[in-house]
Amino acid sequence: RSVGIGRAHAKAILLGEHAVVYGAPALALPIPQLAVTASAGWSSHTADGPGELSYTMTGTPSRALVTQASDGLHRLIAEFRRREGVTGGPHLEVLLDSAIPHGRGLGSSAASSRAIVLALADLFGRELTEDAAFELVQTAENMAHGRASGVDARAVGAAAPLLFQQGRTEALAVGWDGLFIVADSGTAGSTKEAVQMLREGFGRHPGAQERFVGRATELTWTARQALAEGKPEELGARLTDYHDLMRAAGLSTNTIDTLVEGALWAGALGAKITGGGLGGCVIALARPERARQVTRQLHEAGAVQTWVVPLKGLDNHA
Ligand code: MEV
């Protein structure tokens, strides 16, 4: 084959971010309409020509984040070649076409990595198991994020909302057909910095890690139950509680808080920051009949882009 194609999508964490790094459970939502496609082929350059990676971004990536991510992606390509025994040979060229904005907690780095892994597997005609693809994505994620829990690497390939804990996943039972509205604040935050900041804070304050992880775990399990039993108010309230937990830990920003307040004011059942934090996106839960108002208010409060993700019927897009 002369060209291999791979595709992955964005994700949003419903609850559990940061705590998941310490072994707690997390709930994640695939965002199928926000995707990245990688194409891998043979470069006309020689091996000492430019690197094995070119970007075409349809989003607006920040240069620093792209550079940070691309170190991981170079490692990923090298690791794929090593594991699959395809060292040497002509120079590879990988093109990424991504609609996922960087640094917004939407899993752009994991999605890019997964798309590349699948493109390389396609090019070399290799069948990769889900676990093998996951491990390869994690080699790049660990470079981009320090120590990544793996929730992003799993969620960017998932067809339906999932529960993640310590590398394992399970499809979430969904007993209600509400909508999530994801709103981009327009400012990037570094997951690596956020994870490091939290770790340092835990180091300075004895018991803080246990309190954070304990509270996060309690909220995540309650939300999971509410989702399964179709109790939207309960689910919404736990999302907002999780926002308060993240804010108290210093992971939110004024812009993000304004978006959360705007969404709640417009009738969202709950709203919170999503992902690593220090910028990025807000996720709001709304009844279908309220979604337009919530979306409008999010834009008025400063959101630069929004995406509506229905809880049910996600598997139709897989
Ligand atoms: C990023 O989407 C989620 C974090 O918990 C980091 C991780 O799980 O590796 C902040």
TrEMBL record:
- Keyword terms of this UniProt record: ATP-binding, Cytoplasm, Kinase, Lipid biosynthesis, Lipid metabolism, Magnesium, Nucleotide-binding, Transferase
Segments forming domain GHMP kinase C-terminal: 224-302
Cell compartments where the protein resides: Cytoplasm
Protein's pathway: Isoprenoid biosynthesis; isopentenyl diphosphate biosynthesis via mevalonate pathway; isopentenyl diphosphate from (R)-mevalonate: step 1/3
Q: Which residues form the GHMP kinase N-terminal domain?
A: 77-153
Class of enzymatic activity (EC top level): transferase
Does Membrane count among this protein's keywords? no
Which coarse location class describes where this protein primarily resides?
A: cytoplasm
This entry's Enzyme Commission designation comes to 2.7.1.36
Q: Would I find Lipid metabolism among this entry's keywords? A: yes
Any one GO molecular function term: mevalonate kinase activity
The UniProt family comment states: Belongs to the GHMP kinase family. Mevalonate kinase subfamily.
For this entry, the protein name equals: mevalonate kinase
Q: Which organism is it from?
A: Streptomyces broussonetiae
Q: What is the lineage of its organism?
A: Bacteria, Bacillati, Actinomycetota, Actinomycetes, Kitasatosporales
Q: Which gene encodes it?
A: mvk
